[in-house]
Write a structure and sequence with these properties.
By secondary structure, the protein is α/β, with parallel strands linked by helices. The chain contains 13 helices and 13 strands. The chain folds into two domains: 190 residues, 3-Layer(aba) Sandwich (Rossmann fold), CATH 3.40.50.2000; 156 residues, 3-Layer(aba) Sandwich (Rossmann fold).
Amino acid sequence: MAVASTPMRIVHVSPYPLERTSGINRLIELLAEALHAHGFETFLVAPGISSRPHEGYLRRIPVPIKSSRARNSILALRTFSIVIRNQPVDIVHVHQAHLQSLAGLVAARIRGIPTVLTLHLRLRATSRLRRLLQSALLRTVVALAKEAIAVADLVAADCGLSEVQVIRNGVPIPTEPARAPNRCSTPRLVFAGRVTASKGIFVLLEALATVDRVNPISLITFGPVDDSREYAAAKRRLGLESRVEDTGVDPGWLQRTNSDDVFVLPSFYEGMPLALLEAMANGLPVIATPVGGVPEVVIHGRTGLLVPVRDVRTLADAILWMAAHRDEASAMGREGRQIVAQDYSLGQLARAYESLYRRLLRVPQDALALTSAGPKAALRR
């Protein structure tokens, strides 16, 4: 496709901090890189004080914010100011039903800029009042957005929406699976993402301790530890300190996996997790929970095993099954890789959003005039 003479500027609005590991921010980065060659400039407005250098395809606009009860309101107001003041912007693309997203959508509507909302997952409310507020916010942002997108059919259903377009998350598909040089003599579990309770890490530790009495299987984690004190205490209490290797954030984590590894993600809630797709794209069999869009790609008995949320015993049984059936597990990994390559590639994701953006920009709105406006200054905070 021919590249536009004047780049189209897409401003993404994300509530997740720039300094924190986030699948949503990672997806924005992948999309920005893929679309850069097709005439798109991408900006990411998100909380944080990022010192990371700007890539040629993505400019991060940090929104300094302190932890407080008014954090979300302050974040929303500052995001509104960024979107309303900066010229020119062609499309505002917000993520999640968040107060910040509402602010970005309102600012864009005032300016006559087309908008996109992507729903990645529906968070679980902790009280009836919070559930009512979340539902009201969800309905409002969906109504305000020119286009509403869900990352999976099951995510759309979980949000109670039937009139939204589904654009599946996508990841790079390697020509050959990345592999560590040395193969392990016994299966190893791999966990990638935030090492935190909502990702099921403590359930995984309990299951690993159960398994350890039968088969001494190890676990390697890639990602930041949210509560290092509680996590260390759990490993010590369960006698797993020698069985678990925590590497921290490692962008090249897939290069440290091998063909006998099993990817495990026993999350309490998810959308369509990128780490899961990346593991499957690299041919790893999977054990996961049937949350969000996960069952659309982890087909029980074909590409992996699904276990109930918080079910230590069933998770332990699934781990033991993978260890005892290594040929079957490898076949699951191969089929999973085929499914991800067919339906969840970064190329498919980029083409879908490029088509959506170009369709929105053909609508006669002020954004068309902005696209052809003169020199484009960097976004201001």
